[in-house]
Fold:
Amino acid sequence: ALQKLQASNIAPVDMAQCAIGPGMGVYSRFSKILEADGTPMGVRGALQIINQELDLYFTEQDGEMDSDSRFCIDLYTQYAFNDVPFGEADVLARAKNTSVEKLATSNALYAQKGVVRLLTREEIPEKMAHGGKMIWLLTQQLTHALEKNGVAGVAQILTDVLAEPERAKALAYRLFTIAERKGWAGEAYTYNSLVIAWPEVQARVAKLQSEFDKGRQMALFDKEKN
Structure:
Protein backbone atom coordinates (compact mmCIF):
# COMPACT_ATOMS: atom_id res chain seq x y z
CA ALA A 1 0.00 0.00 0.00
CA LEU A 2 2.81 2.42 0.85
CA GLN A 3 4.59 1.65 -2.41
CA LYS A 4 1.42 2.51 -4.33
CA LEU A 5 1.01 5.76 -2.42
CA GLN A 6 4.60 6.74 -3.11
CA ALA A 7 4.35 5.75 -6.78
CA SER A 8 1.21 7.87 -7.13
CA ASN A 9 3.26 10.87 -6.01
CA ILE A 10 1.38 11.57 -2.79
CA ALA A 11 3.02 14.56 -1.15
CA PRO A 12 5.22 13.52 1.79
CA VAL A 13 3.25 15.84 4.06
CA ASP A 14 0.11 13.81 3.25
CA MET A 15 1.70 10.34 3.30
CA ALA A 16 1.06 9.59 6.98
CA GLN A 17 -2.57 10.67 6.73
CA CYS A 18 -3.11 8.55 3.62
CA ALA A 19 -1.55 5.53 5.33
CA ILE A 20 -3.91 5.83 8.28
CA GLY A 21 -6.99 4.99 6.20
CA PRO A 22 -5.91 1.50 5.07
CA GLY A 23 -4.31 0.86 8.45
CA MET A 24 -7.41 1.71 10.44
CA GLY A 25 -9.54 -0.30 8.00
CA VAL A 26 -8.86 -3.43 10.06
CA TYR A 27 -11.33 -2.16 12.66
CA SER A 28 -14.16 -2.47 10.14
CA ARG A 29 -13.06 -5.91 8.94
CA PHE A 30 -12.60 -7.63 12.29
CA SER A 31 -14.68 -7.68 15.44
CA LYS A 32 -11.63 -7.39 17.70
CA ILE A 33 -8.10 -6.02 17.28
CA LEU A 34 -5.73 -7.28 19.94
CA GLU A 35 -2.32 -6.35 21.26
CA ALA A 36 0.44 -8.97 21.39
CA ASP A 37 -0.53 -9.73 24.99
CA GLY A 38 -4.15 -10.39 24.04
CA THR A 39 -5.61 -7.13 25.36
CA PRO A 40 -7.79 -4.96 23.09
CA MET A 41 -5.82 -2.53 20.94
CA GLY A 42 -7.05 1.05 21.07
CA VAL A 43 -6.94 3.57 18.26
CA ARG A 44 -3.89 5.25 19.79
CA GLY A 45 -1.97 1.98 19.76
CA ALA A 46 -2.96 1.34 16.16
CA LEU A 47 -1.79 4.79 15.10
CA GLN A 48 1.57 4.20 16.78
CA ILE A 49 2.01 0.96 14.84
CA ILE A 50 1.07 2.66 11.57
CA ASN A 51 3.67 5.37 12.17
CA GLN A 52 6.27 2.76 13.11
CA GLU A 53 5.59 0.86 9.89
CA LEU A 54 5.83 4.07 7.90
CA ASP A 55 9.22 4.82 9.46
CA LEU A 56 10.36 1.25 8.79
CA TYR A 57 9.29 1.45 5.16
CA PHE A 58 11.39 4.54 4.47
CA THR A 59 14.31 3.27 6.57
CA GLU A 60 14.42 0.03 4.58
CA GLN A 61 14.79 2.07 1.40
CA ASP A 62 18.14 3.29 2.71
CA GLY A 63 19.48 -0.17 1.92
CA GLU A 64 18.94 0.52 -1.78
CA MET A 65 21.11 3.63 -1.62
CA ASP A 66 24.82 3.80 -2.31
CA SER A 67 27.05 3.59 0.77
CA ASP A 68 28.04 7.27 0.57
CA SER A 69 24.39 8.34 0.58
CA ARG A 70 23.62 6.05 3.52
CA PHE A 71 26.37 7.77 5.48
CA CYS A 72 24.98 11.20 4.61
CA ILE A 73 21.46 10.18 5.63
CA ASP A 74 22.68 8.99 9.03
CA LEU A 75 24.79 12.10 9.56
CA TYR A 76 21.87 14.30 8.54
CA THR A 77 19.54 12.45 10.93
CA GLN A 78 21.86 13.05 13.86
CA TYR A 79 23.37 16.45 13.11
CA ALA A 80 21.61 18.04 10.11
CA PHE A 81 24.22 20.39 8.60
CA ASN A 82 25.92 21.15 11.91
CA ASP A 83 29.53 20.47 12.90
CA VAL A 84 30.57 16.98 13.98
CA PRO A 85 33.89 15.95 15.58
CA PHE A 86 36.03 14.14 13.03
CA GLY A 87 36.28 11.04 15.20
CA GLU A 88 32.51 10.52 15.29
CA ALA A 89 32.14 11.08 11.56
CA ASP A 90 35.03 8.72 10.86
CA VAL A 91 33.47 5.90 12.90
CA LEU A 92 30.16 6.33 11.08
CA ALA A 93 31.87 6.45 7.69
CA ARG A 94 33.79 3.24 8.35
CA ALA A 95 30.56 1.54 9.40
CA LYS A 96 29.06 2.52 6.03
CA ASN A 97 32.11 1.29 4.11
CA THR A 98 33.19 4.75 3.01
CA SER A 99 35.53 7.47 4.30
CA VAL A 100 35.40 11.11 5.33
CA GLU A 101 38.19 11.89 2.86
CA LYS A 102 36.28 10.36 -0.05
CA LEU A 103 33.09 12.22 0.82
CA ALA A 104 34.95 15.51 1.18
CA THR A 105 36.54 15.00 -2.23
CA SER A 106 33.08 14.25 -3.63
CA ASN A 107 31.82 17.64 -2.37
CA ALA A 108 29.41 16.06 0.09
CA LEU A 109 31.32 17.08 3.22
CA TYR A 110 33.34 19.88 4.72
CA ALA A 111 36.22 18.27 6.62
CA GLN A 112 38.96 20.48 8.04
CA LYS A 113 40.77 20.97 11.36
CA GLY A 114 39.02 18.09 13.08
CA VAL A 115 35.54 19.29 12.12
CA VAL A 116 33.17 17.58 9.71
CA ARG A 117 29.74 18.60 8.44
CA LEU A 118 27.50 18.02 5.48
CA LEU A 119 27.75 20.71 2.83
CA THR A 120 24.52 22.63 2.45
CA ARG A 121 22.65 22.66 -0.84
CA GLU A 122 23.99 26.13 -1.53
CA GLU A 123 27.58 24.96 -1.04
CA ILE A 124 27.37 21.90 -3.28
CA PRO A 125 28.57 22.68 -6.84
CA GLU A 126 25.68 22.93 -9.28
CA LYS A 127 27.49 20.82 -11.85
CA MET A 128 29.37 17.67 -10.91
CA ALA A 129 30.45 14.61 -12.84
CA HIS A 130 28.92 12.05 -10.45
CA GLY A 131 26.18 11.25 -12.99
CA GLY A 132 23.60 10.95 -10.25
CA LYS A 133 25.25 7.84 -8.82
CA MET A 134 25.45 9.41 -5.36
CA ILE A 135 21.76 9.85 -4.63
CA TRP A 136 22.34 12.18 -1.67
CA LEU A 137 24.20 14.69 -3.84
CA LEU A 138 21.66 14.39 -6.64
CA THR A 139 18.76 15.03 -4.27
CA GLN A 140 20.46 18.09 -2.79
CA GLN A 141 21.24 19.41 -6.26
CA LEU A 142 17.64 18.91 -7.36
CA THR A 143 16.15 20.64 -4.33
CA HIS A 144 18.51 23.58 -4.77
CA ALA A 145 17.74 23.77 -8.49
CA LEU A 146 14.01 23.82 -7.70
CA GLU A 147 14.48 26.66 -5.24
CA LYS A 148 16.67 28.63 -7.64
CA ASN A 149 15.38 27.85 -11.14
CA GLY A 150 12.11 26.00 -10.67
CA VAL A 151 11.04 22.89 -12.56
CA ALA A 152 13.14 23.81 -15.58
CA GLY A 153 16.31 23.75 -13.48
CA VAL A 154 15.51 20.32 -12.05
CA ALA A 155 14.70 18.90 -15.47
CA GLN A 156 17.94 20.20 -16.92
CA ILE A 157 19.94 18.32 -14.30
CA LEU A 158 18.01 15.10 -14.81
CA THR A 159 18.69 15.04 -18.54
CA ASP A 160 22.34 14.33 -17.69
CA VAL A 161 21.68 11.77 -14.93
CA LEU A 162 22.79 8.19 -15.53
CA ALA A 163 21.26 6.70 -12.36
CA GLU A 164 17.56 6.15 -11.68
CA PRO A 165 16.12 9.59 -10.83
CA GLU A 166 13.22 7.97 -8.94
CA ARG A 167 15.69 7.16 -6.18
CA ALA A 168 16.14 10.88 -5.60
CA LYS A 169 12.40 11.23 -5.17
CA ALA A 170 12.40 8.29 -2.75
CA LEU A 171 15.17 9.95 -0.74
CA ALA A 172 13.19 13.19 -0.68
CA TYR A 173 10.35 11.27 1.00
CA ARG A 174 12.80 9.85 3.54
CA LEU A 175 14.44 13.19 4.29
CA PHE A 176 11.05 14.86 4.66
CA THR A 177 10.10 12.28 7.28
CA ILE A 178 13.34 12.90 9.18
CA ALA A 179 12.98 16.68 9.00
CA GLU A 180 9.34 16.61 10.08
CA ARG A 181 10.08 14.43 13.11
CA LYS A 182 12.97 16.70 14.06
CA GLY A 183 10.87 19.84 13.70
CA TRP A 184 12.99 21.22 10.85
CA ALA A 185 10.13 22.97 9.05
CA GLY A 186 12.25 24.59 6.34
CA GLU A 187 13.95 21.33 5.47
CA ALA A 188 10.67 19.43 5.40
CA TYR A 189 9.16 22.04 3.08
CA THR A 190 12.10 21.75 0.68
CA TYR A 191 11.82 17.99 0.24
CA ASN A 192 8.03 18.08 0.10
CA SER A 193 8.24 20.65 -2.71
CA LEU A 194 10.49 18.40 -4.79
CA VAL A 195 8.08 15.47 -4.60
CA ILE A 196 5.07 17.65 -5.43
CA ALA A 197 6.88 19.03 -8.48
CA TRP A 198 7.98 15.58 -9.70
CA PRO A 199 5.21 14.93 -12.30
CA GLU A 200 5.87 18.32 -13.88
CA VAL A 201 9.61 17.63 -13.79
CA GLN A 202 9.11 14.30 -15.57
CA ALA A 203 7.05 15.98 -18.27
CA ARG A 204 9.73 18.64 -18.76
CA VAL A 205 12.50 16.02 -18.95
CA ALA A 206 10.54 14.07 -21.58
CA LYS A 207 10.11 17.26 -23.61
CA LEU A 208 13.82 18.10 -23.41
CA GLN A 209 14.79 14.59 -24.45
CA SER A 210 12.35 14.70 -27.36
CA GLU A 211 13.77 18.02 -28.54
CA PHE A 212 17.30 16.64 -28.23
CA ASP A 213 16.42 13.54 -30.27
CA LYS A 214 14.78 15.64 -32.97
CA GLY A 215 17.80 17.91 -33.13
CA ARG A 216 20.13 14.94 -33.45
CA GLN A 217 18.02 13.41 -36.21
CA MET A 218 18.01 16.70 -38.11
CA ALA A 219 21.78 16.96 -37.77
CA LEU A 220 22.22 13.44 -39.15
CA PHE A 221 19.83 14.20 -41.99
CA ASP A 222 21.72 17.37 -42.92
CA LYS A 223 25.02 15.48 -42.76
CA GLU A 224 23.74 12.76 -45.10
CA LYS A 225 22.27 15.36 -47.42
CA ASN A 226 25.59 17.11 -47.75
Notes: Strands lie at 84-85, 109-112, 115-118.
